[in-house]
Amino acid sequence: MGTHIFIWDQFAPDYDNGLAFAIADTEEQARQYVIDKLGYSPDDWGPCESYCLAEVSEIAGAVTGGG
C-alpha cells in the first residue's frame, strides 16, 4: 500500500468542523496515531480520504518550491 496521508475532514462532528490527519501505511495505524496524539478516540471519525504520498509529493513540491 505504501505511505499515505489519511484525512478525516468531518472528524468528531460534535466539535464543529473537526479535522484530523496522520501519515501512515494503513488507516488503522493512522487512527492509532491520532488517538495517541489526542489522548481519546471519538465516537464519530467521519469519512476518511487517503492519498499516496509518492503520488502527491510532486504536487506538494511544486506548491511549496516557490521561486
Describe this structure in words.
There is one protein chain. The chain has helices at 27-38, 53-65, and strands at residues 4-8, 20-24, 49-52. The radius of gyration is 13 Å and the shape is globular. Residues 62-67 have low confidence and may be disordered. With 67 residues, it is an alpha+beta fold. The longest helix is centred in the C-terminal third of the chain and has 13 residues, at 53-65. It has one domain (4-65). The N and C termini lie far apart (33 Å). Strands 2-1-3 form a three-stranded antiparallel beta sheet.
What topology emerges from the helices and strands here?
Blueprint: E1 4-8, E2 20-24, H1 27-38, E3 49-52, H2 53-65
Antiparallel strand pairs: 1-2, 1-3
Brief summary of the model shown:
With 67 residues, this protein is an alpha+beta fold. The protein has helices at 27-38, 53-65, and strands at residues 4-8, 20-24, 49-52. The chain has one domain.
